Amino acid sequence: MKSIVILISGRGSNMEAIVRAGLDGVRVAAVISNRPDAAGLAFARAHGIPVAVVDHKAYPDRAAFDAALAEVIDAHTPDLVVLAGFMRVLTETFVRRYEGRLLNIHPSLLPAFPGLHTHRRALEAGVKVHGATVHFVTADLDCGPIVVQAVVPVLADDDEAALAARVLAQEHRIYPQALRWFAAGRLSLEAGRVRLRDEPATSAGCVVPPVEG
Ligand code: GRF
């Protein structure tokens, strides 16, 4: 059984998708928010998951906040820390502490559109495909080794909200998938590179009926 701690800042729909997926071999030890008013906390509480708030406003700087956050995380001794709409930039010290044990989801096909307002920027750039990325976190923002991506089309009449919704549906699919791999012991970071042990062979292609006569 792998224990995970999920960090959120707001709505928490990715956290919800992970919890609802009921992943074999995954125990959500805690949900932690840096905002006391994060909507996702109610869902976690209602599902009996321990919640904690580490309010970044209560700390003088990033280092102090990250140290307090790490203390709360470590009390749960997680195998993996899952950033799910966690909107704080983390210090290098924090990132190094959880090297290979820290995943994030970003709403673009990285390395395109790191940072904020990805859907607006995708529309402005006129790209024809967009998507989401699950990646290991490194000290460089939205730049860590890529675990899995999902691609969606950008349609002619899309606005930011329509595109965001299409991407979000895929986020809710690929984050549980990445965690399934992790729980099965198939996903790791080795020497700074993602290692995903091979998928078992499944498809045998079409079944061609024997030709008679
Ligand atoms: C998601 O689009 C995630 O990729 C981004 O922020 C959004 C958070 O949504 N980092 P939610 O809180 O998981 O609903």
UniProtKB/TrEMBL annotation:
A GO-annotated cellular component: cytosol
One GO biological process term: 'de novo' IMP biosynthetic process
Enzyme class label: transferase
Reactions it catalyzes: N(1)-(5-phospho-beta-D-ribosyl)glycinamide + (6R)-10-formyltetrahydrofolate = N(2)-formyl-N(1)-(5-phospho-beta-D-ribosyl)glycinamide + (6S)-5,6,7,8-tetrahydrofolate + H(+)
Entry keyword annotation includes Transferase: yes
UniProt cross-references to Gene3D superfamilies, sorted A to Z: Formyl transferase, N-terminal domain (3.40.50.170)
EC number, UniProt record: 2.1.2.2
Pfam families according to UniProt: Formyl_trans_N
Formyl transferase N-terminal domain ranges (all copies): 3-179
Sequence positions that bind N(1)-(5-phospho-beta-D-ribosyl)glycinamide: 12-14
Keywords from the named record: Purine biosynthesis, Transferase
Domain of life: Bacteria
Protein name in the entry: Phosphoribosylglycinamide formyltransferase
Species in which this protein is naturally found: Azoarcus sp. (strain BH72)
Lineage, highest ranks first: Bacteria, Pseudomonadati, Pseudomonadota, Betaproteobacteria, Rhodocyclales
